[in-house]
Specification:
The protein is mainly alpha-helical. The protein contains 15 helices and no strands. The protein has 2 domains: 189 residues, Growth Hormone, Chain: A (Up-down Bundle), CATH 1.20.1250.20; 185 residues, MFS general substrate transporter like domains (Growth Hormone, Chain: A).
């Protein structure tokens, strides 16, 4: 009975943390989708300005992320969670007061800083409260919060903007963050008293070297996934099926969420290799199918394949990065992992945009799929060398 209790995933702390993660990413994705429209229609900005409000936040998150693990060492997980949630919530409220582009960019920068720190913090807390024997399944369940937000955030954002107003959207998102702050006080952590922390910042404080192999692969995955985030709606319009582009993400999310529990259990029982290699392959096949599609049916089949493949990759490699180091260094491992992933998303959006301009959408998606096939080789080379005990 004690063993069963110690293996529980769905504790009050885990549920509260998952709710916080859900609301953090709903705010992120809702604003990512709607703020460009806000800049153009309400602030009278240009398309370039609209793109800038996205870029500024991502750049701020990438820049601050290497320092987030050091901040966790200094202040501890619980204090950092509450403090940065307050900053993230406060910047969310500030959108209600913005009437010009420059103040908006400043708020986006602050939002990016708090986002980069808070996502490292929640990941580190999840790693500490999930039982070691169920780490793969637990991290998979935790990642479902982000996956749900990936679909619900844009849907809610566009719905409120179209049916009500941007102000209504900002009020709703602010309410979500208020709930998150309250939920943070329900999380119980057994944090040992920390020794005095050296305030000097060294490379060791910014990067967990043992997490770099998993980080490199997460960057390659993010690079290919950027082709989905940035271009699926435009590609659907070019194919003449723009009216079903929203169903792509619904199919993607449904398959991902339905397959996640079984794949998480398989990860824990059979090991990463037997789950992640097929997932990389299926993700690549889905991207190729998307590049070759000529009908709405194949478009949705591609979405299902991509959801099945991609759904387990991020939590899977994040788990490997955490297990590659000691529990005390888990926050550094998570930070390292997401540095590479964020860089992959940011650089992929640019490179695939250039690819579309010069060679078209089919070439872009087949290129992204081919990269996933090549990543299987990278996985074998680096994981066998650095994390052979996991395989």
């Amino acid at each position: 009975m004690q063993q069963q209790a110690s293996d529980r995933i769905w504790t009050k702390s885990f549920i509260s943390l998952s709710l916080i993660q859900l609301f953090i990413f709903i705010v992120f994705y809702a604003l990512l989708t709607t703020l460009p429209l806000y800049v153009i229609h309400d602030l009278g900005g240009s398309n370039a300005s609209a793109g800038l409000v996205v870029t500024v936040m991502l750049v701020a998150a990438i820049v601050i992320r290497p320092f987030s693990a050091k901040l966790l060492d200094i202040f501890g997980k619980k204090k950092m969670l509450i403090g940065v949630l307050l900053l993230y919530a406060g910047t969310t409220v500030l959108y209600l007061l913005i009437e010009q582009l420059v103040p908006l960019l400043l708020v986006r920068f602050l939002h990016g800083v708090s986002f980069g720190i808070i996502t490292t913090t929640t990941g580190a807390i999840a790693a500490s409260i999930i039982p070691e024997s169920r780490k793969g399944a637990g991290m998979g369940y935790f990642a479902m919060a982000m996956n749900l937000a990936m679909v619900f955030g844009p849907f809610l954002g566009l719905l409120l903007v179209q049916r009500a107003s941007f102000q209504t959207l900002f009020y709703v998102l602010s309410a979500f963050m208020l709930i998150s702050v309250i939920a943070s006080f329900l999380i119980q952590l057994d944090e040992d008293e920390r020794p005095a922390v050296d305030l000097r910042i060294r490379l060791h404080d910014l990067i967990e070297v043992r997490a770099i192999p998993a980080g490199i692969i997460s960057g390659l995955i993010g690079f290919s996934y950027a082709s989905i985030l940035s271009f699926v709606p435009v590609y659907a319009e070019q194919l003449g099926i723009g009216h079903i582009s929203s169903y792509f993400f619904l199919m993607f999310a449904a398959v991902m969420l339905l397959s996640r529990p079984a794949l998480g259990r398989a990860f824990d029982i059979q090991g990463p290799k037997k789950v992640l290699v097929p997932s990389l392959f299926v993700f690549g096949v889905g991207l190729w199918a998307l590049g070759l599609t000529g009908s709405g049916l194949l478009f949705l089949v591609a979405a299902a394949l991509i959801g099945l493949g991609y759904g387990t990759l991020l939590p899977g490699f994040q788990t490997i990065s955490i297990q590659s180091t000691t529990p005390e260094r888990s926050s550094h491992a998570i930070s390292t992992f997401f540095i590479f992933y964020d860089l992959g998303i940011a650089s992929g959006a640019y490179v695939w945009g250039q690819t579309v301009a010069s060679a078209g959408f089919p070439t872009m998606y087949m290129g992204a799929g081919t990269l996933m096939f090549l990543t299987i080789g990278v996985f074998y080379r680096y994981m066998h060398r650095h994390a052979n005990e996991l395989l």
